[in-house]
Amino acid sequence: MEVDREDGRSQNQLRPLACSRNILHRAHGSASWSQGDTKVLAAVYGPKAGTKKNENPEKACIEVIWKPKTGQIGKLEKEYEMILKRTLQSICILTVNPNTTTSVMIQVVNDDGALLPSAINAACMALVDAGIPMRHLAVSISCCVARSGVSGLVILDPTKLEEQKMKAFAYLVFPNSVHSVLPEGSPSVQGEPIENGIITSVTHGTMSVDDYFYCLERGRAASTKLSDFLRRNLQQQPTNSSKAG
Amino acid sequence: MGLPNASGDLSTEVEVDAFRRLFPLRFFEKHLLESIRPDARPLGRARDTTIALGAVASANGSALAKIGSTTMLAAIKMEVMAPSMETPDEGCIAIDFHMPPICSPIVRPGRPAEAAPVVAKQLSDTILSSGMINLKELSLVSGKAAWMAYLDIYCLDADGALFDAALLAAVAAFSHLEIPVVSLNDDGKIVLSEEQGLSEREPVNKEKRKVNLGSIPFSLTCILHKNYILTDPTAEEESIMETSVTVVLDSSSQLVSLYKPGGAVLAYTSAIQDCIALTRQRVKELQKILEEAISGMEVD
Q1: What is the reported pTM?
Q2: Which of B118, B124, B255 sits opposite A82 (nearest CB)?
Q3: What whole-number distance in Å separates Cα of residue B90 and Cα of residue B92?
């Protein structure tokens, strides 16, 4: 069940990942994330005092601004802002700094498929760089269901061309894998480890229910690899002392 | 009223309405322990759903859909336009979703709702990727003229599950849609034919026809809270328990969309399977309601 991909990758192979932190000096935290040709820059400012009018002042608030590479801000950007905001709200510990706003700016440098997953990964790294307290990281992956009629054919990390040609694709976000010091291992819920839970899922195109569950399996396996990459990256570069305030 | 202790002590002293406003999460959890919700619905039941076709007389197709109190008005207007170069024998659909201030106290003229562009984009993606409408059916003269369908959905009352109601209204409006009769006039332009039938112009399409709908998508929004799954939330439930999952299935049980935008509760495989099973049931209910509405119109 092999499928030929234009860049010669195998079904489960991700594009080369590159991540660097602390690239913008005036921002409190910044990161750039690239997967192959897709590159996204994220900057974090905060926490700043005060929340917006409709937000709950007993919790910290996260504001996301998404800037596309070209063109005006439209519905797509607003949707991505909302998805990113809700994903980041679920991983940050909002009760630590109540009545504050943390702004996350996303700038798309190049879009070659898997844009939302790259932005989520970049935003997480920028939040770590800024020292915002979080429960765990969010690791995001994109899976594509091939049109070839063989069900269960899922390829990981599609390029833009593959996304447009294929039947359907899904962007999945998982919590990062846990290395526990406890003898009984990491906590599990209902018999499944924490890293199997989905934080966010956005699908596009029609696929069968079994294809979706197959995407979830592949996504989980890939998120373990991504978690290891993040862990190594974060351990190498020590975070600078806080620039906030 | 004694304040320092947890709300548990107050629950016997405070009025129900005050308790509901002061401690909303505890209020709901007390109900969830009995597997029921404050409006006496069991956890897996959606609110009463009605569809009325033909609500807007001047539009080519329209529908009013109500799920509980959430009310959506959808209307389709058709216009002839030149098709694009890449797809000369396909028409086009433009979908827009509006939340006017009438729908909710948090929406004001200077403060547009945050949810509006997001729901509009979701609707657009769902309808176009589900294959309900074959764009080639909207073509008139290949390369020269094709139909552009403007679908506008207005939220008249926002009480939770906005996407579900909007999708239902859109689908109902498409099932009510009748493509008007047009003919070529002397300048080579397409114009609407008069009702009286001016016979010197040959109509391009003979009679008003309905659009053939492929597999129709139906959706269900569920809220995840600890181990509970609540279907079809009201606005109050959505604001308290923020993790929602929207599953869209079409009539052939294919998954059109599974949308979970963040949220504190992680969704494990079992929860997703339960949501999909609940959606399957809901699809059958909605199909029946839609068929009844359509056959009700035809009798007239």
Answers
A1: 0.90
A2: B118
A3: 7
